[in-house]
Structure formats: structure tokens, C-alpha cells
């Protein structure tokens, strides 16, 4: 264990002691509102949205283990604020519980029989609004994270789900469509990506294999499986082929499933975003995979009336300087027709290169976008974008740059950096989740905290998976950030019971 890793481990112990004793931060913010010089304003649909800057940073060490004994990792794949948990304290801090859902487990050397799950993580958020830079150790006090427990997911007949590659297909049974399974054990293969919580304790999970959406009970038991339109299903010579290792002939590209999942303010409409274009829409190459699809389902009474597709829109994802698509990692509802979309490169700590060029939560407006659901475009033989060129009959959503995760000034305020050196203060590579909570500020009623967490790919030198130790050659902590935004018309319904 290197010097910084040892220091972080000691800090984690000290922090737990400070939290239990109610001790204050080592350095308190002198401001009660963000420094106005941080504000970045953008316009969309005649309204002004404001990014007021980064206000908190925290982490869970890469070698931390959950209640099953497995290393906690990948938890940035999806997060949500537990309904009814978010509250403001008399000292100006905020408390609540994050529900964090990892993906398919440590799979650097191949997929494993990792049971899908979610973790409950309590937090204390003490926003830091000053312009002065904190040292990294003090920055960790702004978002204190305390693991509570883990809920494991099960499928039909209470079988465990698995993270193994979906090399098999279970035939349609009862109300279930054909499902992706691992042939070695016959279990439902789930690469969990999206998460949306219902008021009754049930929750929705989207995955990459299907790519399907699953309704789960409060106990983590599969209730219902929702299949997307045929244009999105992975087909090889007309037959379902759910593997993530290779691209199909049509449908979602390999490992490019339903990354984004979010409910509207009523909880009656569920939106799911495909990570990048389908194969027939240009998804076989990053230079042509820009135009992806956003699906809307009626989930107002899913047990009585199976969810039905009621909307489908084209989203123009951002591209880098080379013209390659920056795929979407998350979607979050803001207000009617308006969403946040997290797109990024794969660089940063644990990534391909230490220096990241793009990680952003941007605004998407589908108010004037063409609704293509129920049209010829749901047939894979009718692409929306041949070789990446959008069909002239389709108007895509409006995509506007908004929150930059790698702004050097903002990162430095929390002792974090982008680019070398590759140490524990280097920003993580794979940010994949978004959650909103109201700032509860009467002077700024449209202000919200934007929580985001990174998927660290379970990378640890002291990892454990399925009871067996592993050394991934690097310690990549589970990092979290919180921004403060002004979002006109946004609802706090998702944090309410």
C-alpha cells in the first residue's frame, strides 16, 4: 500500500470517528452561497440554467468491502437519493442516503458470476463555497460517506442474477420476453446500469445485455421485464444474440445498452437512453455513432397494464475534436421535456490516459424533437441515420453544453486534478451517474445539488470478488462529486416519499 493509500485508510477511520462524535469540518466555508465568479450560464428553451460550481467531493476507498465480503466498486454506474432521506440540518449541512448500483463486477479478465445488487450509503454533505483551494484531506470532509448495507437482486424462482456474459437466450415464458442468460448456470444475466426509484419501494433497473428494463420488488426480486423496440434488440441474422463481446447485425452495439434511466416528476413516465447509436444507425464506429435513441414508457400502473412505449426521440451526442462520439453514461429528468445527459471520454484515473478532455453533464430538450415511436424506424431495416447521417424527416433533441466535470479551477478547490501525476487525487475516468436533491434555499428555490459518482471498475490492489482476492495493479477509489445548479422548473419529487 503506497503512502497516499495508507493516509486515505487512516483518514477513513478518523472520519468515521469524527462523524460519530459530530465533530465539525477542519475547515468551514465562510460563504453561505457559491462565489458568483464561478457561475456559468446557458440558455435553453427561453430559460437560463446556471452551473454554480463544484461544492463537495468524497470517496469510498478502493479496498472497501460490502456486507457480502466483495469489494465495493463500480458504484458510479447508477445512483439515486433514497426517497424521504434528504434533509437539511441546523448547522447548514445536509444528510441523506445514496442508493448506489454497481454494474457486473470485476471483469478485467472476463465476466464473473457477480450477483447484481445495490448499496445504501449514508452521507453528510457540507457544501464548500469559498474560492480558496482546500487540501485533499480537508476536501474529503465536504462529502462524508458511510456504507450501510447491500441488497442483492434475484430473478424468477429466487435465483441469483449473474454478471456472466449473456451467451444464451431463455425462451419467452408467461409475461417474460426472451431473456439474456448465462448458459453455465441458466441465470438471468444483468449488467446493471440505470436505476430509478418508485414511491412504493419498487425500483427500475436498466441493463446493457438486453438491453432490457426490469421492475424489481423492494426486496430485490424480479417482478417484470420490459423489452425495447425491435430496432434496439441485438439481432444476428434475425435471432436474438445478447453477448456484449461482439456487435450484432442490428440493434444496440456491444456493451452499449440502456445506460440512462429516469422517471418524470409524476413517476408515470420512465425514460431510457441508449448509450450510443444502434448498429444500423451508425453504431459500429465511433465516428458515426452520434445519433442515439431516447425511449419513453408509460409505467403508471405496470402490474395492471404492462409498460408500453409512448415516445421515442433522437439524441445528438457530443463529439470530440476527432469527430468521435462521446457516448452517454447517464440520463436524468429535470422538467417536462428537459434532461441532464452525462457524456464523457474514458480518460482519467483508471482509464486509457491520465488526461481527460471531456466529462460533462449537459442539457437535452426534446420539446421540438420528432417522436418516432410506432413508425418505420422501429424496424431495424429502416435506420434513422445511415452511416451516421440523420434522416431528413427527423428533428433531434437540442443538446447544450452545461456542467464541466474537469474544470481545473473547480477541481483544484478540492485538491483534485486532471492529468499527471496518476495518484489518488487524479479525477476518475468513468463518471456514470447523476442524482438531484433540492438545496432548500428560499432565496434560490430553483437551486439543486447534482450528485455524481464514478465507476472505478472495481480496480484495487486489495480486491475481493466471489471470495477470491485479486490485484488489479492500481488503487482507483470510488469518487463522488456534488455541484450546485440552478434548474428552472425542476422538481424535487424524486427525493420525496
Short description:
This protein is mostly beta strands. The chain contains three helices and 30 strands.
Explain what this protein looks like in three dimensions.
There is one protein chain. With 497 residues, this protein is mainly beta. 6% of the residues lie in helices and 34% in strands. It contains three helices and 30 strands. The protein has helices at 3-21, 136-139, 408-412, and strands spanning 40-44, 47-60, 78-81, 87-88, 94-101, 117-125, 143-152, 168-170, 179-181, 192-197, 203-207, 213-216, 222-226, 235-236, 239-240, 258-263, 269-274, 291-298, 308-316, 328-335, 338-344, 359-365, 385-386, 389-390, 398-404, 435-438, 447-453, 463-465, 468-470, 478-486. The longest helix has 19 residues, at 3-21. It is globular, with a radius of gyration of 21 Å.
The major sheet is characterized as: 5 strands, antiparallel
- Separation of termini? 43 Å
Rg for CA atoms: 21 Å
Count the beta strands. Answer: 30
User: What level of helicity do the residues show?
Assistant: under 10%
Number of separate helices: 3
User: What amount of the residues lies in strands?
Assistant: 25-35%
Name the structural class: mainly beta
What's the pLDDT, averaged over the residues? 94
Provide the spatial order of strands within the biggest beta sheet: 1-2-30-27-26
Shape: globular
Low-pLDDT runs: 1-23
